[in-house]
Each structure stands twice: as structure tokens, then as C-alpha cells.
UniProtKB/TrEMBL annotation:
Top-level EC class: hydrolase
Gene Ontology molecular functions: alanyl aminopeptidase activity; metallopeptidase activity; zinc ion binding
EC number(s) reported in the record: 3.4.11.2
NCBIfam families (UniProt xref): pepN_proteo
Keyword Zinc: yes
SUPFAM superfamilies (alphabetical): Leukotriene A4 hydrolase N-terminal domain, Metalloproteases ('zincins'), catalytic domain
Entry-linked InterPro entries: Aminopeptidase_N-like_N, Aminopeptidase_N-like_N_sf, PepN_Ig-like_sf, Peptidase_M1, Peptidase_M1_dom, Peptidase_M1_pepN, Peptidase_M1_pepN_C, Peptidase_M1_pepN_C_sf
Domain Aminopeptidase N-like N-terminal: 112-193
Spans traversing the lipid bilayer: none
Cofactor: Zn(2+)
Protein name (Swiss-Prot/TrEMBL): Aminopeptidase N
Domain Peptidase M1 membrane alanine aminopeptidase: 232-443
Amino acid sequence: MKNASAPVTHYRKDYLPPDFLIETVKLKFELDPNATLVSSELMLRRNPQSDGLAQKLFLNGEGLTLKAIFIDDEELTEKDYDIDESGLTLNRVSDRFVLKTCVEIDPANNAALEGLYVSGDKFCTQCEAEGFRKITFYMDRPDVLAEFFVRIEADKTQYPLLLSNGNKLDSGDLSENKHYTEWHDPFLKPCYLFALVAGDLDLLADEFVTHSGRKIALELYVDKGKLDQSQFAMESLKNAMAWDEKRYNLEYDLDLYMIVAVGDFNMGAMENKGLNIFNTKYVLANPATGTDQDFENIESVIGHEYFHNWTGNRVTCRDWFQLSLKEGLTVFRDQQFTEDMRSKAVKRIDDVKVIRSYQFAEDAGPMAHPIRPDAYIEMNNFYTVTVYNKGAEVIRMLHTLLGEEGFQKGMSLYFKRHDGSAATCDDFVAAMSDANQFNLDQFKYWYSQAGTPTLRVDYDYDESNQCLKLHFSQNNAHESASEPYFIPVKLGLVGTKGNQVSFSSAEFGLTNVEEGLIIVTQPNQTVNLEGVSEEVIPSLLRDFTAPVKLDINYSDQQLAYLFANDGNTFNRWDAGQRLMQRFLIDEEDSIKESIAEAFRALLNDQSIDNAFKARCVQIPDLKTLFENDPNGRIDSLIERRKTLKKFLGIALEDTWSRLYNQLHRASDLDLDGVSVANRALKNASLDYMAFSSEQHEAIVIKQFEDAKLMTEELSAFSIANHHELEVASKITQAFYDKWHSEPLVMDKWLAIQASVDSLDTLNRIQTLRHDRVFNIKNPNKVRALFSTFAALNFSQFHRIDGAGYRLIAEAIIEIDEFNNQVAANLAKQFSSAAKLDDARKMHVQQQLKKVIDKENLSKDVFEVVSKTLESIE
Ligand code: TRP
Ligand code: ZN
């Protein structure tokens, strides 16, 4: 970091309530791409909860050109205030006053995509976490809640549509072909939920009638010509609204709900009150352009942002350390939504895969933090899988412990206590605890300690007493974790004839059950299960009831047995994954026969659903394997994974081609669960067939040419590339010719090419980044090409000559010039560097030193890279 002052670390323990509150905000926007005027009128008053002593007031503001400033209608002179690069200090303030400011900003040159910016031909905003300060001077913190009034003025031809939060109060024409709209949001909100959109967009309009009979207008705005890709998102919104009423008894509060899709967006979507702004990736899809996975993602993100209206907006966060209060809870709610809409067991598998690959790695790396972090340099770096997904696991544990009814009682109390205000994680846990008379003191270590605990289990069976003893020990290597966790463990017992054996536990109130919940609270703890009538294999941590690593010494035979017989679907899948790791990590060569045999049995079982089968035949990904391998042996993992896949392809040759022929229906255009499941298993089969079937290439070509669904077309395209079929370049070109004007489809086209395990991929990426469909200013494109390469292309990112690392380091340096958030996210791709071998570590170090020496490096990238470098020194 040259030139810049040393970055400041913010600590959770330093929280102080604000000295002033803002009662109402009146904003006027005179929109112009290069010179927008923002006039603001803030009604400020001293916070009765502050010490009352402050004589000065600081307001955040960055990159603003001040045009005018008044207090109580008196223009200020130079001595009345100071301005620096972080904001405005008012040197003398009374207990109650009106501050008026006018600033000028330049949205067209805002490539950071934070604050007010231009995407395509439209204006839009992104204010979370701390982007509002790039729009006007304000107390940019989530515990300052205000009532917003917004007036927007702009050219009528270019920007026929002028939107902001809440209800539209007024609109009309102005001189010089301009017009205006006025908006009022009756719900108090922090400024990170502010939104504005202006442009010329197509509208899909609909309506939802709430359970109390109120009519809500639903408006989905997309770029001109994209209405044929907007219906599914609208259906998802209506489903989400109905679901939240049914499962949580939560009703929408405004009369209007708007969603706008924009092509340039740093994250997935944003829950601004009444006016969500979405990445097009989570709105636009029809069966020809979007895959089955895209549809599931859209449904889930639409749900997520909608659910924030209560968990995030009506009750918001006191400070950004509490981010998991809204994100962990809302991810949990969107996961439940998908479970209820689709398959519960399969959704659980997909969610756990994210935890085990990305979250466990984050928890073991240089950026490890508790779900409620204690410190940050740049808040944007803490929108992480830990805060979001581990946060959701922590909420899920509460749900497991309290049951649906108890959990809902806790939610009601939470809303009763905190509606309309800013709360903390402690407040949430207190509501859950008080509503259920359930002591959660020890449970709270899940909020304060980082790292993944290992839960080790040994067991022995005493036949004469029909007693199974389970010996648990928990262990957490992370420095922040000195206290034992409160760990819910759902379990069952599998007998020798595939039967589920019942058991009792006086300690945990279980009598003759086939499945039950016990709680591990001690560093070492023995649990006695009574009435166990026969020798069994314990099936533990069913449905992954806690985000821990379960360490239990099953024999290969026992694993294969559980894979075939466990009464819990999730654990069945898990046994299969563990079995494969015996080959991949433990290097047990002989086990591949039993894997093939287990696959054959599973695939021939007519009673099992195809979505589950498709998950089971997926070999653990390299990210998970690397995380699980104590020695992080990249080359060996890559080699062994290829070997296993090829072996299974050949050993089950007949099964794969039989499945393909059975399930392939070029004419099936349905998006229902059964069709989606059939396609998933069929395309997995086609992938395995590449190792044996002679007609394979012809089948891939035919599937590509006949495809009417993107799922079908993309699978064929992907298989052709990954198996480097002769036809690959032809297919790649044909796909491009067909889709080059659909940016979201081109993202897929880029991502697949970036993930091919071939020495040629680096060159390919150099060519692709100069293709006209690529644009380094667009975050979706950067993610498609660079993040995919670093995250999914193990062999090429970790090239032993360091060229993969260099590619990403240079991209970080280039992108940091204009978009710090995206650059920092890319920098996180180096976070498991400490686990690499010395040669690779040296290359990473060399590249990251180049990054850290860059002039004017952002604090975003500085935080990630400095911590990563520390971890490998
Ligand atoms: N609150 C958003 C969500 O989870 C996340 C988000 C959208 C975000 N845009 C952002 C976070 C920009 C940080 C920066 O739904
Ligand atoms: Zn969210």
C-alpha cells in the first residue's frame, strides 16, 4: 500500500449509539449521467440514548462535490464545517436542526457499482453496506432509521420510468422535456435500503392478494425485449409471498413490490424496501436460455430478497458486525422455501456441499471469522459463506433444538420486541430462548468462535446389557475457540438386515425411537443408548444437524453398507461420499470395485428418486477433497479423481448407456421435479459414457443439435469441452454463433471454457478476454472467466509453473483500479495457499507481493491479501 494512510480496523466492541438521529430525509435527484445533483434535507435531533455531550457531528460522504450547505436555512461558512475524503464534520450543532446540502456526483463513471451508477442506459443504486455515503452526506450506519421522501427529475424520453422505495405520491411534467416522480416510504429504514432506478424498461405486472385480503401490485422491470425471460421470476415471487404467509405468518406491508433487473451488479441481488434490485442472472431465464439450476437459483434468490422484508428490513441490524442476524436467518428461510417447493433431501445435500467445500475452507484459512465477526477493515469483505451459510446452519440448529413450533414462537417474540428497530444477534437468541424457556448460553459460542469443530465418535456395544455407548469428543483447532460447543446430533441405528433398530435414552428423553436427537455439550462425553437389541452401525449427524466434521471410524464394508441401507437419505449420500474419499484421499486402490458395485445397486433400485441418484454418482469435487486432505496433495487428488471417474465410466458402461437411453427425451420441455431429476441423472450418465461408448461423440452432437432446453444444450457443450472431443471446437463456435447476443448465456460459454483441465486453457482465456462478449467492467463476466478458472479449474489454476496464479493476480490488479469489491472477491481465491506445497506457495507469495505493492491498492484487497500473505510466511 503506497501513498494511502494505513487502513483502519473497526471493532465490534467499540459500538456506541449515534449522537444524533435522523427523523426524516427529503432527497431530490436531478439525474444526469455525468453530473447528477442530489439535494438533501435532514431533520436531525439529538439521540436521547447518547451521552448528550457531542458538540460536533460527523456525516459520511465520499466522492461528493459540495455545492451548497445550510443549517436551519442559514448558509454555512468555511469555519462552520470541515470536509475530508471520508466526510463532513459540522463544528457546532444544536439539539435539533435541519441540515440541507446539495452535492454533485458522476454516476456514469462509477465502475465500482456502489452508490448511484449507470448500468446499460439506466440509473440504479447499490447502497449496502456503505454505499449511501457516495450519494449524499449522511449518517451511513444501519442503526439510524429514518422516514424517506424522494423526488426524482430526469429527461422524459430517456428515463420514462423513475422509481424509488415505498409508494408513489405524485408525478408530472417539467419544462425542457423533463418529468418527475415523488415517493414516500412510510417504514423507517436505514439508508443501506435506499434505492433509485431510472430508465426505459419493459414491465411485467401482476398482483398478489394477501391472506388478509389486501391487493399488492407486483412490478418486474427488465431490459427492453426480455419479457419472455421474466415470467418465472414473477411466479417465484408469488410463491415466496404465499410461502411466507403460510409458514411464518408474515404478510407483505406496502401496496407495491417492485423488482428491477440490471446487468452490472456486484452481488446476487439487494432487498431495498419495496424496490429490489437484482443481478439479471437471478431474474432472466426461459427454458431455452436458462438451465434447471438457473431456475432453482432464481426461485431461491427471489425468495431470499422477499423474505428480507421482515428479516432484515422490518427488523434490521444494529451494526454491520450483526450482519448474520439478517443474512443467516434469511438464508435459512430461503433454504426452507426451496425444501418445501422441491425435494427436501436433495436441497439439504446441495446446501451441505457448499458448507463443506467453501465454508470449511474459509474457516480454515486466513480470513476465518465467527458468523458474528469481531473486527473488519472493509465490511464488504464480510459478506461471506461464513456469515451467510454457516449463519444459516446456526439458525437451523436452533430450529432443530426448538422444533418448528418452538422456533415460530421465538420468531413471533423477536418481531414483537424488535419490529421497526435495529437489533443484535444476542437479541435474536434471547427471543428464541425466552419464548421457549430454553437456555442458550452455551449455544452462543457458535456466534463468537471461528473455525470448524471436529466431532470424534467411538462406540462399543454391550450385548448383555443391550447398551450402545457413544463416546464423543469435540475439538476445534481455531485460536478463537476455547469453549466447547452445544452440538445437536440427530441419530439412528442401522441393523445388519438393513433394518432401523430402535433405542432409548433416559438422559435425552427418548423411548423406543428409531431416530432421536441428543446434544453434545462437553469436550468429552459418553452417551448411553439403551434397549439396543442387536449389533448396529450408528448413523450420526443425520441431515447434518451441526456444521462440524464428523470423525468416525467406519470400515469400508460399513460405509458401503450405510450407502445402501441408511434410513436417512442425507447420511446415505454422505456414506457414498466418504466411500469415494477412501480411494481419493486414503489411496485405497482396491475399494474402487465396491464403489462400482454400490453405484450399480443404487442405479438399479427403482424405488430411489433420480435427483438423489444424480447427487450420489457425483464424485466429491476437488475443492472439498483438497479441504479434507490433511496434506493438500493437489496433483495426486486430480489424478486419482480422474482415475476413479474413468474406472466408473468403464465398469458401469452398460448402466450409463441404459440410463441415457431410458431418460433421454429430447421432447420433454417440462420443468417439474421429475423431469429435472431425469435430466440431471441422464446428463451425469452421458458424462461417464465418454470413457467407454463408441457412439458417445455422436450422441453428444445429437443432443446438442436437438436441444430445446439450455440444460440439454449446455450439458452437451460442457461434455464436449471437458472430454476434449474432436467436435468440441465446432460446438463451441456453434454455441457462440447462436447465443452471442445473450450476455447471461455467454457467461456460461466463458465459464465452461475457463474450467477445462487442459494446458491450453490459459491461452484460451487470454483470447477470450479480448472477445467482444467479454467486458472486464462487468462483474458477471469477471466471475465467469476468472473466478470460475480459480475456483473450479484446479489443475490449471495451480499450475506448477505459477502461470495460473499470475493470471489471477494480474486480473486483481487491473480490476482494483475501478471495482474494489470484485477485486477483493477474486483475491479470496488464494485463501487456501497455506495448505499448498512449497513450490506453489512460493509462486503465490510472489504474485501476492506484486498485488500488495500496487499503488493505491484498495483497503478491500489489502485486507484479503495481507492476511493471506501472513498465513504463508
Ligand atoms: N443484502 C444482499 C443480500 O444478501 C447482499 C448484497 C447485495 C450486497 N449487494 C451487495 C452486499 C453489495 C454487499 C455489497 O441479499
Ligand atoms: Zn441477504
